[in-house]
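Appendix B, record 7
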Amino acid sequence: MKVAYDTAMNSFKFTASAPEENLRRLLLIRGLFLLMICTALGYCFWQLHLPLPYRSLLMVVSGLTLISIATLVLLHISHSASELAFFTQLLIDVLGLSLLLFFSGGGDNPFVSYYLVPLCIAAATLPRHFTWLLVLISLALYTSLIFFKIPLPDIAPQGHSASVHQNHGAAISIHTIGMWINFLLSALLISYFVLAMASSLRRQDATLAQLREDKLRDEQLMAVATLAAGTAHDLGTPLTTIKTLLHEMQSEHDSPSELKEDLHLLQTQVSHCSDTLRKLNQQASELKDGILPTYSVRQHCSKIIDDWLLLRPEVEANIHIDADSPDVQVRWQPTIAQSISNLLNNAADAEPIGIDIQVYWTHQKLTIAIHDKGPGIDPAIAEDLGKAFVSDKGQGRGLGLFLTRAAIERYEGVVSLSQHPEKGTLTTLSLPLTATTEDA
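Structure tokens (predicted):
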């Protein structure tokens, strides 16, 4: 089980490092783009003999290359990247492309459609606000390149009769306007639909990750349940033997003494264990038959706390069960009562003296707040509490809280642990009362 859990955690770490992987892919795409630009510049210089500002273009290419190298070095050092860093690199690509287009014909350059590449990448990998911001910036830069550019007559649309506007003697043709409108529509459609598909994929990934985590938890629960069933079966005979011996020892010590009091306490504890095993068999039979009795929330919570106090006679607790809460009837699985007992035992293990227990509910939700005066939560393992084999007790295995959380979350409840402002730990259980709830 531990190996399976570690495997799942590794998969989650891989998902969390997606911005870094995406940034590496982006740098690879940028490198291919710059290689294509250098090839195109060489062909224009040696074959076509186009009058381009080659020095300015090579300075832009060199700048983008240096930025890529610096980014790779930073990635190698930190091994992490944020969404903001990834957005910044896409913005650098858009700005670099704008400079290259400015020196080579502006909006008339056929490579202006490359603006769509960073937008597609942003829509597929970044949150919605980053994507739309990049769309607006790209659209503004594209529009500026229609009016502000170094003209390149060899690629400018022919036919001044098709021009619709004059700006400093340069014609803006219908073809250029059409390219701009085509870019606008393409950018909007791509951003909208790719964003929708990417969001859907992220939700599916989150659902699959949750299903994997639930499966691992269920496997752990099944293993623990199998061991518990075997242990319960094995305990039956020893408990009967101990109970018989205690009865004989009590008969031999009729006179008042401390030993007789201790024997009586032991007899009470053993009887409680026997009753617990008997109830376990009874509850298993009820679960098999699908028949769950109806309980009053008030009476059931009182019984759980009373049984816990019987099992833990050393506890001194301040118990408050809200008298104004409505009388609600529910059908609870036996695991819920066991989960509440586990939380109470955790508080008693931390510090049995001065435990505050608040119980209140509405027609929709039960809330139990348990405040112990113990040492509080160890910050080193605070985030991992509730996982199997993680405990802040010296001899604890962490199974109690793990089983409790698993059982409560199965019924859409929540168990939270926090450091109390005064001292100790505040444990809060919130459980929806949705299973056969009615006014008494």
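Remarks on this record: Residues 174-252 form the longest helix (79 residues). The chain is about 65% helix and 10% strand.
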